[in-house]
Amino acid sequence: MQMSMMHRMIQTTGGCPRLTRFSFHAPKMVEVEFDNGSLYHLSAEYLRIYSPAADSKIRSVGGEKVISGRRYVGMMSAEAVGNYGVRLVFDDMHKTGIFTWDYLYHLGCNKFPLMRNYINTLKRHGLTRDPPPPRRK
Q1: Model pLDDT, residue 136
Q2: Where does the Gamma-butyrobetaine hydroxylase-like N-terminal domain lie (predicted)?
Q3: pTM for the model
Q4: Cα-Cα-Cα-Cα dihedral of 27, 36, 104, 21, to 10°?
Q5: How does DSSP assign the chain, residue by residue?
Q6: Residue boundaries of the structural domains of the chain
Q7: Residues of the chain with pLDDT under 50
Q8: Tell me, which fold does domain 17-123 have in CATH?
Q9: Nearest C-alpha neighbor of 6 from the set 102, 75, 86, 77
């Protein structure tokens, strides 16, 4: 299922380029394109771990906020929030983060260093991207 929102050029703040296209490819990816030609494919896992909302499933390890075990998380829906962003609902029931167009641009521009930093943080704390095994009864 693909949802595409392309109503008009949407102004961003802070000198970021304008969003020209947002496509929701449930459950695994969103695609965002900006008027400077930048096109980013952002995975559900990446968006979940960099959600702008505080979440009770974040572990504090040595004073550092770390989300682990989200490799296979999916997105269930994308809901427009005004003309400035989107609320993504994930299948782990996380739904409080609003991703502004500026923030999506930031995540797109910095995808590789942010993901590398995330993986290094997990390794440093002995955590993994994989979900924990099911509990035995």
Answers
A1: 81
A2: 28-105
A3: 0.83
A4: -40
A5: -EEEE-SS-B--STTPPPEEEEEEETTTEEEEEETTS-EEEEEHHHHHHT-SS--TT-EEETTEEE--S-TT--EEEEEEETTTEEEEEETTS----EEEHHHHHHHHHTHHHHHHHHHHHHHHTT--SSPPPPPP-
A6: 17-123
A7: 1-12, 56
A8: NE0471 N-terminal domain-like (3.30.2020)
A9: 86
